[in-house]
Amino acid sequence: MARYAMLYFGTVGLCVISSISSMDEDSFLNTTSITNLIVSSYQESLQTLVEKAFQSRQRRSSRAPSLGGFTFGQQAEPETLEIGRAAETFHSTLQVLDQKLKQRYKRDITETGLLSWEHVELLAELSGCPPPAHPAICQDSYLSKYRSINGVCNNRYNHFWGAANIPLTRWLPAQYEDGVRQPKGWNAGRLYHGFELPTPKEVSKKIMGSSVKCEDDTYSHMLVEWGQYIAHDVTLTPQSPAAGKPGDDCLNSCENVHPCFPIQVHDKPPNGQGCMPFNRSLAACFNGLGPDVWQALQQQQMNSITSFIDASVVYGSSPKVNEFLRDLGGFNGKLTVNAHFRDPKGRAYLPFEESLQSVCLRGREKAACFRAGDGRVNEGLPLIALHVLWLRQHNRIAETLQQLNAHWNAETIYQETRKIIGALHQMITMRDYVPKIIGQESFDNYIGPYGGYDPTVDPSASNVFATAAFRFGHATISPLVRRLNQSYQEHEFFPSLKLHDTFFSPWRIIKEGGIEPILRGAVGKEAASVLPNKLLADELTERLIVLAVPQDMDLASLNLQRGRDHGLPGYNDWRDFCGLERIRTLDDLKEVVSDASVAERILEVYKHPDNIDVWLGGLVETFLPGSRTGPLFACLIAKQMKALRDGDRFWWEAEETFSQAQRKELGNVSLSKIICDNSDITEVPPDAFVFGKYPSGYVSCDTLPPMDLEAWREEKSQDLKRCGSPGQIDNGDYILLKLAGKLVTLYSCYHGFRLTGGDALIACEGDQWSGKLPHCEDIL
Length: 780
What we know:
Myeloperoxidase, subunit C; 3 domains; 26 helices; 37% helix
């Protein structure tokens, strides 16, 4: 078992244990005795966690394979799971420590001043949390050329800001029932302002579900689809895998046993379970010094992808995923494409996921899933279509850049193309999408014109943005996925589909007309409108498909439970945060909701205004003029978007990111033009987000301004002419840089290899490259 513990949780902290565990515990509580208690608590916690993990592995190996056992699209990357396990060890140790303190000293771990920062750091080290990196690692000037794939070192002084696998930031402290990690609603009978919280299912059934969705004649459904797509570029909160006693796998238990937090269903169906399964979000590791010790001890949730709008949805947020998506063997800077299928014009599709756990649906049959930079790509057909567009756009640009700059190697072509694709994601989102969502007035007040990169701004995604505010779009999802022909009418051969028939069905793209019918349906049909009495379509509250769960789920309940899982403060606290007046009475609520009957139902269900969940409260507010959100969500979304822009050193408008000529060409591009260039669609609205009834307002693709990549033409430098092309290495590549006035080659290896036997940096000296050519050694 000890060997298994080292394999499962690593060996971090063993040297600390050996130097501390021999100390005698003092009879009174001081720094030394607390240290001893931390070590003994860690050892007890580790033993318990290892036993649970071992039992879980045994159960999985004895269980027959079935669809319910597959969770493709929700699987966290190994490094994410490793950090999550360390965080789980941290909090498990904290629980044991709290019990010891109460039993032996009648002290509570929540007492101010009881634990110091040194104690917190010891807990983190023992648990296996990644140590803080030295700030000097981000100071090298060559880090200025391209952003890292995992977001590290975007900020040279706070190198984890915005990076993958860090905690979602807290704009307000978490509110847990035990102060540390127990979600709201964890303890039966717990009262909030004199009342129990309603179950999420009760809120969903009495307030949120709707059998009818009205249409918004201002914006197209593409506004909805882009919202989901760009949300997947900014946040992904992985779920915690269960590792407890038999029955605690969250599918077969209705008890709150960590990490299971089931959603209670009081009117359960015949022969059905009295709950919907729910796994809590994966915990994040303590991440450096903060405002106080207590906040470091509270459970935080992880963003497993980069927070930046950087097209990580295309390229991934880890070296392993990134290189799995690249066509490294083609030496052309392109992304890999599907080896089995193309559309009738020879255009590429996304490659298939090769994992054995890749299980998408074709009726009752299992089918292959597509692979992309984000694992949620297969959730719906419009989402897949957008992923296909950007795959094709990358490869089109890479091919043109290779023709313009024959002296560029594959790595340079790839990185320059990735840089352009990221810029287009930023521009379409901030210029064309965000003002329509929060309204131009809110955009001007909260975000304003770009003033350049600000290294004091933390661009990390916030918990309330990821878990509540940016989920406003769930209420705009239509119960139908429209498929239209060339005249933007119902398709003769591939009719529109009910939403639940499109979940995890990528085969429909290949076998049923490609991406064109779906894209026409997105730009050629109105978005669903949001009314307080018509929030989420029944397709989402009654028939949501989650591959890992063998029963229909309810998106509204899942969102409400997720907010409670994360300890989000209530609706009124966030109104305070945004400088809005608190809701104290029914009349106050009626003023912000605009539908008196809905306001009455909300207070009837919640009993007290301070009990209202922030996602519901923000969703029912009356829209601001020219927006699709009320004042609370406009504030929270704007605050996050401003941080993503101002705190990104590689933002497309930053002075050093692109030349003036390149910025001008990027500014010509629209989502409509990208649709034209990468599909068989020939007529589009100039703005893909604005609805127009065909043919009124539609234009020929030929009339839309292109992006002239001549602005990226780069003449071969005199240094490169003198020294020639640098040596190529197997399982790695290089980029060219100017350092201290010299042309320098920076070598790096692909994932799974490390540089050895030579110099990472080789300079052009005279007419030759100085230094020894390195090679890449396999480390897997």
